[in-house]
Design brief:
Length: 254
């Protein structure tokens, strides 16, 4: 598998893009501002999006659909998410006030975007890869994913403050090659991290005690300006872990 890190920051700024990971050519885990850096011909190849409702994870979705609309007439884009997430998108974005409802254009019978509901524990197979949705704790319904093909696998935590079911699912696997996990705030801002239901270094280190695999850990969703401090605290809290941050533009091969 090839994972393009289109965006992985907890905010915006020069060189910073919010969460969007492209798995091979056709699939996005989240559709934040990072998707906008793809050339047009690569945008045309995107056919699948997994996401939850927070803006930094869906900000690019309305513009992506509008940009590649003609390409979707014959082969629609599919959005996979929980029913609650879909309802938020319909109520607050694709409502004809913020953006057109592309889930009913050009017609209800043949829209350019279709919704496929998923629930935690469910698996979807795309181009030989299995995407398993796993429940996590966040301020809105949010999930993580285990992505597997015949040769490799990785997990993406999404936004979370606790993920016991993710660690349980990973521990049941004979091998996991990579974990991409969020850590939004430094420990001195642990109170806001708790309120927003994100990890800080101490809380993430505590969670990862439940993970039996010794695997590459890539950290995402760092708050702009706090990146160096967060990584220093993570390495101090988990000296036994192989841990690094990722940046927009990184390419990971599994």
């Amino acid at each position: 598998m090839k994972i393009n890190v289109l965006g992985c920051s907890g905010g915006i700024g020069s060189g910073l893009r919010t969460t969007a990971l492209r798995v091979d050519a056709s699939t996005l885990l989240d559709c934040g501002t990072g998707v906008g850096d793809l050339p047009l011909e690569e945008l045309f190849q995107i056919k699948h999006v997994f996401t939850h409702s927070h803006l930094d994870h869906v900000a690019g979705l309305p513009l992506l659909i509008d940009t590649i609309y003609e390409e979707l007439i014959d082969e629609p884009l599919t959005v996979y998410c929980q029913a609650e997430t879909y309802q938020v998108l319909m109520d607050h974005i694709f409502n004809w006030k913020i953006w057109p409802n592309f889930f009913s254009l050009p017609s209800e019978e043949k829209p350019v975007v279709r919704f496929v509901p998923m629930t935690p524990g469910q698996k979807i197979i795309i181009d030989g890869k299995t995407f398993t949705m796993i429940e996590v704790e966040h301020t809105v319904p949010a999930v993580s994913y285990l992505v597997q093909d015949a040769k490799s696998s990785f997990a993406f935590s999404g936004d979370t403050a606790s993920a016991p079911k993710l660690w349980q699912a990973l521990n049941q696997q004979s091998k996991v090659d990579l974990l991409i996990v969020e850590c939004a705030f430094a420990d001195e801002r642990s109170e806001i991290a708790n309120q927003a239901k994100h990890f800080s270094p101490t809380s993430l280190a505590k969670e990862l005690e439940s993970l039996s695999h010794q695997l590459q850990v890539c950290v995402s969703h760092l708050q702009p300006g706090e990146e160096e401090k967060i990584m220093q605290e993570l390495r101090a809290a988990m000296p036994q872990r192989n841990i690094r941050s990722i940046c927009s533009g990184d390419v990971l091969f599994l």
